[in-house]
């Protein structure tokens, strides 16, 4: 039985098309280094890759949250540290005021305390990236508001920020609040008002009053030290989360690479084999077609 020449030709063309397509796919893998370019290349592997990429995106969001939270925490620590320095100097002035014997000395200490008060108010209203760091969740307005007399001298400080601190999710665990909350911020306001009292007692040359102000300033100093410790603990937690997220992201990248990257040596061997098969198909096809054509002519 003679096989029709048209059937042989169609079969040969179909075979050559498959071999050409295979060569093109292997050449693309060699060029790009990627084993998978479309889902149909390996549906199961592509599903795993999509899950890995989704997890990577989540970790990237946590990393962005963590970077912002760490920045807020670092700014807060620096500001509280500056308040602690002001507290230290105020304590020294209180000691000097208790032993002061001249009106000039009292006046000088009172003036310096007033300057420290203005500095402390400015620090308490510190902003980072346009947001007040000690306002809790209310960051768009200064959280510490001064009441002043006709001469512009501060007579009282009020905390007008929020009670709650903003929280940031940086992992699957509990969110982290890098900001100080309303209770802590009120203690800052108390410290500022203690400075008001110390300034006024020094101005009045009232030794017992200066001594009383000294005592409450010590309490505020303790509060500042505790706050610095709390912020430091949050920074440690944030830095730990950052390190873990970086490690997890790197692991996920490797897993994705394992799924998608082509084994270059193996792919080159397959490409060579595909090219050889293509040449062989051309040669054998040509011979078969020639024989069939001769048979047909006979």
Explain this structure.
The protein is mainly alpha-helical. It folds into two domains: 51-163 and 175-254, f41 fragment of flagellin, N-terminal domain; 264-298. It is 72% helix and 5% strand. It contains six helices and four strands, in the order H-H-H-E-E-E-E-H-H-H. It has helices spanning 5-32, 43-98, 103-124, 182-203, 207-260, 264-297; strands at 127-128, 131-132, 144-148, 154-159. The strands form two sheets. It has a two-stranded antiparallel sheet with strand order 1-2. A two-stranded antiparallel ribbon has the order 3-4. Helix 2 packs antiparallel against helix 3 (103-124) and helix 2 (43-98) packs antiparallel against helix 5. The longest helix is centred in the N-terminal third of the chain and has 56 residues, at 43-98. The protein is rod-shaped. The mean pLDDT is 85.
């Amino acid at each position: 039985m003679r096989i029709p020449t048209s059937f042989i030709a169609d079969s040969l063309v179909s075979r050559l098309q498959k071999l050409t397509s295979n060569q093109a796919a292997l050449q693309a893998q060699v060029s790009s280094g990627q084993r998978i370019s479309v889902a149909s290349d390996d549906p199961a592997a592509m599903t795993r890759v999509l899950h890995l990429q989704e997890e990577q995106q989540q970790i990237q969001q946590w990393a962005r949250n963590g970077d912002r939270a760490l920045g807020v925490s670092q700014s807060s620590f620096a500001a509280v540290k500056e308040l602690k320095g002001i507290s230290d100097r105020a304590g020294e002035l209180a000691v000097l005021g208790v032993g002061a014997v001249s009106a000039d000395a009292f006046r000088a200490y009172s003036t310096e305390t007033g300057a420290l008060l203005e500095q402390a108010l400015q620090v308490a209203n510190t902003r980072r990236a346009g947001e007040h760091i000690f306002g809790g969740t209310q960051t768009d307005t200064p959280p510490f508001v001064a009441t002043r007399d006709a001469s512009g001298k501060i007579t009282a400080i009020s905390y007008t920020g929020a009670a709650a601190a903003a929280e940031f999710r940086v992992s699957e665990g509990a969110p982290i609040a890098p900001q100080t909350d309303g209770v802590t911020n009120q203690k800052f306001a108390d410290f500022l008002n203690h400075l008001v009292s110390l300034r006024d007692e020094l101005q009045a040359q009232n030794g017992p009053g200066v001594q009383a102000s000294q005592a409450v300033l010590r309490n505020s100093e303790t509060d500042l030290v505790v706050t610095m410790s709390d912020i430091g603990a949050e920074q440690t937690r944030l830095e730990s989360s950052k390190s873990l997220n970086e490690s997890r992201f790197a692991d996920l990248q490797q897993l994705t690479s394992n799924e998608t990257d082509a084994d270059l040596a193996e792919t080159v061997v397959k490409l060579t084999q595909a090219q050889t098969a293509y040449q062989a198909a051309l040669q054998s096809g040509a011979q078969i077609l020639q024989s069939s054509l001769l048979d047909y002519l006979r």
